[in-house]
Structure formats: C-alpha cells, structure tokens
User: Fold this.
Amino acid sequence: MARKFTPKVLTANDLMEGDVIYLAADGSWVRDHAQAEFLEDETIAEMRMLVAQGQPEIAVGPYLADAKMGENGPEPIHFREAFRTRGPSNYFHGKQAETASQ
Amino acid sequence: MYTYSDFDEAFVRERCKQFRAQVARRIDGSLTEDEFKPLRLMNGVYLQLHAYMLRIAIPYGTLRSDQMRQLGMIADKFDKGYGHFTTRQNIQFNWPTLKDIPDILDALADVQMHAIQTSGNTIRNTTVDHFAGAATDEIADPRPTAELIRQWSTDHPEFQFMPRKFKIAVGASTHDRAALKVHDLAVELVDKDGQQGYRILVGGGLGRTPMIGQVITDFIPKADLLPYLEAVVSTWNIIGRRDNKYKARIKITVFENGIEKMRELVNEEFAKTRAKFSGYDQEVLADLERQFAPPAFKNADPSSLETAVAVDPLLARWVARNTNPHKVENHLSVVISLKEHGKTPGDATGDQMRLMADLADQYGYGELRISHEQNVILPHVAKADIPALFTELAKAGLATANAGLTSDIIACPGMDYCALATARSIPVAEQIALRVKELDLEDEIGLMKIKISGCINACGHHHVGHIGILGLDRAGVENYQITLGGDATETAAIGERTGPGFAYDEVVPAVERLLKTYLEKRNSAEETFLDAYRRLGADPFKEALYGDAKKNAA
Assistant:
C-alpha cells in the first residue's frame, strides 16, 4: 500500500540575504510561510522541487518541509520550521523583527 | 604579540581578492552553489538557519585592541550589532549578506585578521590557555608554539582535504585550561631534565563518540615538534576512514588501531618527515618567542586595590571571582564575563567590543584574549588599575562576577542559529542563569561547569560539563539529556548519561534539583560538585532527577 503523503511547503534560503524563502503558487519566492503554496500532491511537490532547483540564482538548498493548513495559510509542523518562520529566541531579529516593522 | 610578515599580508590580501571574485561569479551565475559551497567554506562562510554566518579566526584567542575595535565596527556596519565568541576562541557573525562578506574580509585584513581554515576538513584554529604568558603555573608562554603550528598548518597542501576537521590545542601549565585531552591532538609543553620539549596526546574529542586523548609520546625535543605533528596528521590522513564521516576523526583511527599501533605508524612516518625539516622552523620559533615577549609591566603600588576591596563589597566579589593570579606580583589577569544572567553566553555588542578594546589600551597593555569558555580576558592588569577597570566594566554591563560559577555556561548557538542543531541551547542557558540568580545560590555552589549543546556534535562541550545538557529532537519535540561528572581539565572525564531526557520546560527544574542535592550531600563548602559526584556516585543525583523508582533508568 502506498504511504500517505504528508502535505509540504517548498523552502530554501535566499542567495543574497541568506534568509528563509518559500515558493508560492504563482512561482514567486516569498518570505512568509503562510503565503507558501500548500502542496498536497506528491507529484506536484516533486515538480515544484525541480522548479526550485532550476533557480540557483535565487534559492539555495531547496527542500520540502512538512506543513499543515491553518487559518491564514500553511503552518509548519516541526519546531525547526517554526523557528525558521521567525528568528532566534535570544534577540528580536530576523523575520519577527521584519514583520513587526511592516 | 605576533605581527604579520610581508608574506602573511600578501597571502591574506590575495585570498580576499580571490574570494571577492568567487562571490561575484556566484552572484552572476558563473558558479553553481555546488561549486561555490566549498569555496565559501574555505573562507569561513556558512549558510545557517536564518542567514549566512561568517566565522573569523582568532589565532590562539589573542587579539590586539585595534583588532577587537574592528570586530566591533563589523558588528555594527555589517551585522546586527553583536558577535558571538566561540569555544574555539573564534568569533562568528550571524547575519552578514553574501555581497558584504568580501568587504568584511577586507576590513579584517586591514587589522591582520582573516577567516581562512575556520571551516572544512583541515587543521582548524589552534587553541591555548587563555591565561598564556600570565599564568603562575606555566613553564613558558605556549603561544609561540601555537603560532608556529598556525604558520605550518595554514594552507598546508597535504592537509586541505583530510578525512575530517582536525583540532589542536597547546598547553604549558600544570592546570589544564585548554581542554587538551578532548582535542584531536594536544601539545603540552613540558620540562624534562632541564630541557623544554613537548608531550603529545592524540585521539581525544567530543561529538557523537566522545573520547579522552592518549599519550603518543611522552617527550619530544622542541626541534621535533613540526616533523612529529606532520607525521601524526599525515599518518591519519592516509589511514583515517573516509567511508563514514562519523568515523573519520582521528579518535576513531586511534581507537580502531590502538595507541601502540598508531605510535608505531607515526614513528615510521616521523623517520621520513624528520629529514624534511632543515631547522628553519626553530629559527622561526626563536623569532616568535621574541615577538611574544611580555609587555613592559608597570611598577604601580598594588596596595590601593586592598583598600578599595575593603570598602566595596561588589568590587571584592568581582575580584574574588573574575581575576586570576599573575606571574608578576603586582598584576592580575581579569576575566570579563560575557555571561550576564539571562543573556546569550559569548555574545558581545559592538559597543562592548569597543569598550573592551579601549580598556585594554588603558589598563591592559593593548591585549585581549578570548577563552574557550566564551569570555574575554585582559591577561595583564596592574592591581592598582583594577578598581578603575571594574567601574568602567560595570557601567557597560560587563562586570558580572560569575567566572567559574553556575551561570558561566558554555552554550553552542543551537537551533536558534545553527543548521545542524536539533534543539535550542541558548534559551536553556539563559533560563538556568536567571534561576540561579533568583535562588541566590551561585556563591554557595562555587565552582560549577554547566555546558550545553544543541546537537550530538557537542560544540557546547556537554560531555565534559560537570552537568552536561544535550538537546535533541525526539519525535518532533525538543528533548534534553543530562550527563554528570564530565571534566575538561587535567583530570578529564566524559560525563555519564543519567537517564531519559527532559522536555524543554523541565530542564531548569531538573538542574535545580541537581544543584540542591549537591548542596545537601556535600562534605563541606570546599567539596566541589565534581568532587561530590565522584565520591557519591550517580545514584543520589539520579534520584533527584527521576525519583527513586527511575534512578537506574539509564
């Protein structure tokens, strides 16, 4: 029996800034996890991975990360991915600061 | 202190130029990430969780004031206003952008610094006792030896693509403050029948297979050091395992072959390498020993310190905790704690770096050190200047009187920054420090080494903590294993695992129970936690952690 596919988002680090990016449904790269494309189909997820791997001028180290659908869009499942959506615990730096300044 | 030669200057500038071109080619697409990654790592550039990280070499943890000032400038101009000092006596910046890194490397070169060999399967920064040149119990300053090793190992053509990284430490004192026995190779300056030479240990290390180094030779003359090191590293480079990166360190080679076989192989190699060294290295070493001559110590009357200590309890406490005896009677070595309660261990802001540089100029002959315990040291301060220095440090939040105490915690960056980490370290360290402050138990507990790693790689040295904490991912949740009885000094020991791990919010209460058990069970205030653990064994501490039913759970 085929194993059940856990939904994913496609994530990477931005080449220039190094910060965390996500592939959106329109093919653009976004900074907000909630705006990532929610990938429920394994074949589509694999195709998106090929797309990401073909954009080394933007995305470094793309991979698929487990996600679930929340009220505002996809949410991370694993705590590592949750940390990547904000910033470090010890300073108000990274995405948490960027979000607050918007 | 060592000053760059013309060769060093040209070499580092050329590397900066090369890397600037490599970054440009990565950005314009001429280089793929697979092609670029080994090049950036050769220049200390990692890609971490939230950003690039640049690891900068601080050879043997020694900095001039102008170098510290430049690090402060880099923190403010190219990063987010702070830097993180590491257990390899280096500094890391956590937020540089790729396009800025060539400018940072140029700024480092301006003050004779670089990021070469701070990553990769090569010989990393050689570390030493942070009180080198000042300690009362040292045979000689170990830094000329460390600088000789740096010059030999930098861009050594045979040692750029080894099975794994290789870490060397140099010591020269009866009390080991450089964690010699948990290094791939340790060089210990010793005196035999009036002749100075070296004892060499190999095969120590932490990570997933922690091991204590073993003596491979009891004594080699100074002139044999580099050929002998070359023989050791060359032997391992040939026979070290490359089939499995987790078994590629020299500790596994020594374990699998045995120290006798290893000694035999190294001696065979040494017979060949010895002939290749003409003796020029000893001329270099003699020159280095001259360059590391102590400063012209001032002859100030030290009695004013006693007077000040008598009337100022805060100063008295800080002097008792954060100074170390100096080989010159009217001087002390000062530990500037980067472990303010509730703050990130090892972090300093740009302002703090500049202040420390200024204070080094004013009171410390322009010299600073980084300790492997992630503090900053002013190695030479006249006793007469201590009260004024304390006042200045206190104004900047740099006079925390906790060197060697419970809150003086080594912590790796953990999952707040590191791409390899599996759990967080920093907030655990912060919370333990805040809790012991709240309990006001630190002075009563006395000497205590707590060390925290956020993954099995053990960058936080948890195996050699009196209390070690290892953060892991257990089924998608942060979980923390506790080890007890570790020791990084001359009586080195690997800590023993106590039992099942604790959830994130259970760690601080668990540590608190250990500390209180120690206070209840110790013989006297003079018996340290480590001594008490060695006398009592693990049982009372396991009981404190798990209750009587689970004390045999390990």
